[in-house]
Amino acid sequence: MKMKQGEFIALSASTMTLTALGIDIMLPAFEALREHFGLAPDSTTTAQVISFFFMGQVSQIIFGTLSDRFGRLAILRVGFPLYIVGGLAAAFAPNMAFMLAARFVAGMGAAAVFMTTIASVRDRFAGDQMARIMSLVLSIFLFTPVFAPFLGAAIISVSTWQMVFIT
Q1: Helices H, strands E: what count in the chain?
Q2: Quick one: which of 24, 85, 111, 122 has the most CB atoms within 10 Å?
């Protein structure tokens, strides 16, 4: 059964937001991370949590090639678990080194999902219609960095920094 256009757009926008959400939701958690790992209040070590997520994004090149060879669904089946496992591992990281490794894995998962989503839009649409759909999907994607820190702050107000990573 073929997915309706509106459903496809909603799914594409949702999956692409994972990358921005994975970065921006945790910004309000930096202070709690410093306290949890015994870092100085002015430590910039927490910024590495974002850097390692971005480093995982380099794997877009690999996942793009693999999705052409093995199909989009196969790569989504790899990407989502990497993203989820990376987030869970980061939430329960016993030390900062483990946290950074977990964020790298989550970044790889987000890269797989992001790349596969873009390829899927190109597969399904062409020309002006593809440009319109990509514009809509990317507009929703670009809204995420505005919304995600508020979500992270709301979660921290009722729970712990670990719940931000689990989310």
Answers
A1: 8, 0
A2: 111
